[in-house]
Amino acid sequence: MPASQPAPQIPHGDSSAADPNPEARLFHSPPELWNKLKSIAREMRHEPTPAEEYLWQRLRNRQVAGAKFRRQYAIDHFIVDFVCLEQRLIIEVDGSIHNVVVEYDAHRQAVLEAQGFRFLRFRNEDVLESIDDVIAAVTSAIGNFWQRTRPIKLNCSTGRVL
Asked: Which residues contact 126 (CB under 8 A, 6 or more apart)?
């Protein structure tokens, strides 16, 4: 999203609040589940893996293409490592446990992709040893999203794209 436009405000699981954008609710866990996931996500934010912490230091405060990332964020029935809601981009940092939970990861990714999210997955080693390559991949994914979604302006008299 261009810097001149404010990011959409997407409230957390409070279903009693008046929601000016009802579609925003799709990005969150159901309120009854949010109450359970909230403490787990908070704990995960306070105890990140070294790779998650290293990547977070590069993603936070809109350092990558001006995109706002959240970490350990509840979406549907899952907690994702990092998400940029504006970009519908989820970043997962996979440690050795993910070699064992391949089917679960595939199911989780399919459910979230069905909601319109895109995924980038990196191994811990990739983040810790090649952070610049990881950031380049994230930047590329953000750029590709804006190229596909930005409005096209045409000069009516010439038919040329502006």
From this structure: 133, 134
- Predicted local confidence at residue 102, as pLDDT: 83
Give CB contacts under 8 A, 24+ apart, made by 67-74. 67/1, 67/142, 68/7, 71/45, 72/41, 72/42, 72/44, 72/45, 72/48, 73/41, 74/13, 74/28, 74/29, 74/33, 74/34, 74/37, 74/38, 74/41
Residue 2 pLDDT? 43
Which of the two residues, 69 and 39, has the higher pLDDT score?
69
Compute, in degrees rounded to 10, the torsion defined by CA atoms 64, 70, 74, 75: -40
Q: Calculate mean pLDDT across residues 66-80.
A: 93
d(CA 7, CA 118): 19
The phi, psi pair for 3, rounded to 5°, reads: -60, -25
For the chain, the residue count is: 162
Residue ranges of alpha helices (H) inside the chain are 31-46, 50-59, 102-114, 124-129, 131-149
* Distances, alpha carbon 26 to alpha carbons 37, 48, 70, 74, 75, in Å: 16, 26, 16, 11, 8
